[in-house]
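Posted in: Structural Biology > Protein-Ligand Complexes

Title: Requesting predicted complex, manganese (II) ion in pocket

I'd be grateful if someone could produce the 3D structure tokens for the following input. Sequence and ligand are given below.
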Amino acid sequence: AEEAKKSLHYEEHTLKVTYGKLSHLKPKVRTFVDESARLCLPSSIHICDGSERELRNLLNVMQQAGMIEPLPKYHNCWLTRTDPGDVARVESKTFIVTKEKRDTVPAGKEGVKGTLANWMSPEDLKEEVSQRFPGCMSGRTMYVVPYSMGPVGSPLSKIGVQVTDSPYVVASMRTMTRMGGQVLTTLGEEDFVKCLHSVGCPLPLKRPLVNNWPCDPARTIVTHIPDTNEIISFGSGYGGNSLLGKKCFALRLGSTIARREGWLAEHMLILGITNPQGVKRYIAAAFPSACGKTNLAMMTPSLPGYKIECVGDDIAWMKFDEDGVLRAINPENGFFGVAPGTSMKTNPVAMSTVLSNTIFTNVAKTSDGGIFWEGLEKETPNNVSIRSWLGDEDWSTECGKPAAHPNSRFCTPASQCPIIDPDWEDAKGVPISAILFGGRRPEGVPLVYEAFDWKHGVLVGAAMRSETTAAAEHKGKAIMNDPFAMRPFFGYNFGQYLTHWLSMEGRTNRSLPKIFHVNWFRKDDKGRFIWPGFGENVRVLDWILRRVEGDDVAEESAVGLLPRPGSLDLKGLDTSTLDTHELFRLPKGFWEQEVRAIAKYFDEQVVVKSMIKLQA
Ligand code: GTP
Ligand code: MN
Ligand code: MN
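-- Reply #1 --
Done. Output follows.
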């Protein structure tokens, strides 16, 4: 013990701690920090407390380094422009590390490449780490970020500690999670999720930075080790690759923990909806990335008397309470939302949320110190000039390139949302009455249908497909399977994930939430959306609520229960231009093909023996 004490003492001197105290850390945290520092060799260590003063320091550091600039049009808003090589999640470089490959990916058909998660062996991980991490923080500060997913101290919450050499990551984690000293006190001597992150640019630099944004796209790797609750990420500073509480912890590791403990970690928004009679229900909904979660969660309803309140816009952790009611919490503390398409017309709630204390990444900037992206054309004064996310001054639509990157984002505190639900931080979570699945389906898929029962609902989730967003649009209609909107986020074998979902029925004596499929994105033969979407989606939620109450407003079809003619409330909509017949039409040829495609997908990716037999 004396020896250990001496060596710790020694390291406190050699590892220059410029903020906080190593000796205040609990032994397990301390060991993790020591090991990380020994491996990455930072020049100093900063233990984050989450304070306002600390944030000011971080913003200063970043401003000096040219990583961020202020947006003086708003209060405490900042703009970051990344290296154009580091703008999105990198699915091909994201791995789940297990001893057995089968624990990560279903066996699938021989000779077919599995698309449901990438597997890496522990040996390979060791090798990849040893090629990247030794000395990777040289000349930089290593920040220690203690954080809670979910309200601090809630029985549903989980704690992580991330070490990172990116001040941008720290500032963003402060918004997206509950971060700081209080978390370590709550943690006590318990285990936590260990998150090691480096942008992979030790000093002195081997190549000049682009936009002062350190990263190493060629060697980027994002790995998850469910056996030891560890996340190791290298080379990217962006979003889901670097804010490790979000996709890596709350979804990938989260789903493995949820399976062990008998609950669900899902890529879902959570919203509260109150009808004109004052009845309030909560709904969770899974749509793939860039398919409308943030927009639905913050919707301004067009039907009079309805109220929507937001609990979360991206991730839901759902557990049964002692009465067998499925309850959900939003493990996050902020919104990391898609910027393009957001406007006062489509999402006024999001617009008013982001006008203070927000970090914008890869959006365009107006000459009066404001933000700009595709969708804000009508809301931007004519007399300002626009600088694109790539730095082109005097950007205009004529140049043929977008002003903002299609995956540009805002990172903003959830508490600022004007319609944040009063119970959004309730430790027990909110009771879920309905679960929605949906995606971008330009053809054949009706506006809404209800699953016949839980098992059918699980099939509907498993069979989810969606049109690829942004880049793929030019290649025509590329429809991709995205089961449960979780394809990029499964932490374990999808076959076992299905078994887990099916097992929910046996975990409660109460009736489970009803399951629905929605599609805001059906198009006419001229390629225009036939449903107005956004605030009008409340009409669909209204029908769903009536089904939840048991109203007889549905009729059977081949795919599920459809709204009985006339039961969808269209009052106030211009029905002369709305093709209600097309909204619900089930083209036979389309569905025969769809069923064959789904059967083939399961056959190739999951090897479905007797579990689900699909015949066209
Ligand atoms: P992630 O945050 O990446 O998981 O995506 P998300 O599911 O939160 O998607 P988001 O709500 O940000 O929507 C993405 C895009 O879809 C935006 O450009 C929106 O304008 C558009 N969108 C959202 N809802 C609707 C709708 O009801 N109709 C139409 N036509 N577009 C919509
Ligand atoms: Mn998402
Ligand atoms: Mn979103």
